[in-house]
Amino acid sequence: xxxxxxxxxxxxxxxxxxxxxxxxxxxxxxxxxxxxxxxxxxxxxxxxxxxxxxxxxxxxxxxxxxxxxxxxxxxxxxxxxxxxxxxxxxxxxxxxxxxxxxxxxxxxxxxxxxxxxxxxxxxxxxxxxx
Length: 130
What we know:
- By secondary structure, the protein is an alpha+beta fold.
- The protein has one domain: Roll (Thiol Ester Dehydrase, Chain A), CATH 3.10.129.10.
- 21% of the residues lie in helices and 49% in strands.
- It has helices spanning 3-6, 11-16, 47-63; strands at residues 18-24, 27-33, 67-78, 86-96, 100-109, 112-128.
- The chain has a 6-stranded antiparallel beta sheet.
- The mean pLDDT is 95.
């Protein structure tokens, strides 16, 4: 099963309005067009929305090899607040071993990096998607 088809089952991402643009060979790009429910009490983008987008792009990248992979560790550093428009997450595989994979996801707003996510995935080597 194709990773884009597989991730259509991610109802949390769908509910939050996340769109998967690309996913192939350990890389993925996803986008979130900001809606009023994405903002925190300060009027800026909620950190949970940023993390959700980054985590989804991470999932797409680590599952893009066609076998199931799950996140086992993740962290996110925020650099700049966002208050309108859309954000894009670009995930890239930086290490792929037999069972573990390392990923970096950069979150962009208007071509500026506003956050960086680092994640590690456990690959279920012989378990295909679907």
